[in-house]
Design a protein that fits this description.
Zinc Finger, Delta Prime, domain 3; Rossmann fold; 290 residues; 5-stranded parallel β-sheet; single chain; alpha/beta; 13 helices; 2 domains
Length: 290
């Protein structure tokens, strides 16, 4: 589970301190959804909660997506439609039977249309008892403002790479580390011909999908270490001290970059065109501070 306020939501619930709706910004939507489902299990567990429980009926229903008082809404195609929200409201118009509360989770909340967001506002402006909600997004700034302004915002950041910081400095990874730093300097400092660099240089050195994935895992670690340093957390920042073009970024700028690379790593697992994905990363990185 992400090391953040998600860990404490169960306590907040039992202490009657929980908000009726949260907007969760995360660098891994799928992991965040699974963590929220675990939280729902813990909240509703009739005995002592255990992971991978095979006896609790509530946990089994949640695992099978059959618990009537838990609604998970995700985009239908590219957007979350008004009809999906209307169905949610119909289903939650009665008091739950199996649990004390109804809980809805809106996955990829940035995909809500203006129409679906307007339909959702009644839930948010006139919160009913026994209804709680969570909106999950990879970028809260992309969520429609009328929704965003009515939610309590929390962050759930995950370690989504398979490498650890110490392994990055192993001799076996020195070539990848050098390529990563050269690539970042090209994108962050020179800021020209970056898309051509993807084709002419980067893909000439490493073209296999798994190697590109490893490269971006290292880039993620680099950004995370500078982010830790900006938050006054223990880090290996000194290893990168010579790279002043990164040490000058504030925590907001670094967090944006962490989210961007995390999204790249999520996308690369799909069967997408590698060149187009790299080009999209370059374009998005160029826009991140605007």
């Amino acid at each position: 589970m992400a090391l953040n306020v998600l860990d404490r939501l169960v306590d907040y619930y039992h202490e009657n301190k929980i908000s009726h709706v949260y907007l969760v910004e995360t660098n891994n939507v799928e992991l965040c959804l699974e963590d929220l489902k675990k939280i729902v299990k813990q909240i509703f567990c009739a005995s002592k909660y255990q992971e991978n429980c095979t006896e609790c009926n509530i946990c089994n229903l949640i695992d099978q997506n059959y618990l009537p008082s838990l609604a998970i809404i995700e985009p239908d195609g590219s957007t979350i439609k008004k009809e999906q929200i209307l169905e949610l409201k119909r289903n939650f118009s009665t008091v739950p039977i199996y649990t004390k509360d109804n809980i809805y989770i809106i996955k990829n909340a940035e995909a809500m249309t203006q129409s679906s967001a307007n339909t959702m506002l009644k839930f948010l402006e006139e919160p009913e008892e026994h209804i709680m909600g969570f909106f999950i997004t990879s970028n809260l700034n992309n969520v429609i403002p009328t929704i965003r302004s009515r939610c309590e915002v929390i962050k759930a950041m995950y370690d989504v790479h398979e490498l650890n910081i110490d392994s990055v400095f192993d001799d076996s990874n020195s070539e990848f580390l050098n390529i990563a730093m050269t690539y970042l300097e090209k994108l962050e400092v020179e800021k020209k011909d970056s898309i051509m660099y993807n084709r002419s240089i980067l893909l000439g050195k490493i073209s296999a999908r798994e190697d590109i994935k490893k490269l971006f895992q290292i880039i993620l670690i680099i950004y995370e270490e500078f982010l830790k340093n900006s938050l006054n957390l223990p880090s290996k920042y000194q290893k990168f001290a010579k790279n002043n073009f990164l040490s000058s970024y504030n925590r907001k700028a670094l967090l944006k970059r962490v989210n961007l690379v995390a999204q790249f790593l999520e996308d690369i697992s799909s069967n997408v065109n590698l060149e187009l994905l790299l080009d999209k990363f370059v374009i998005d990185l160029g826009d991140v501070d605007e």
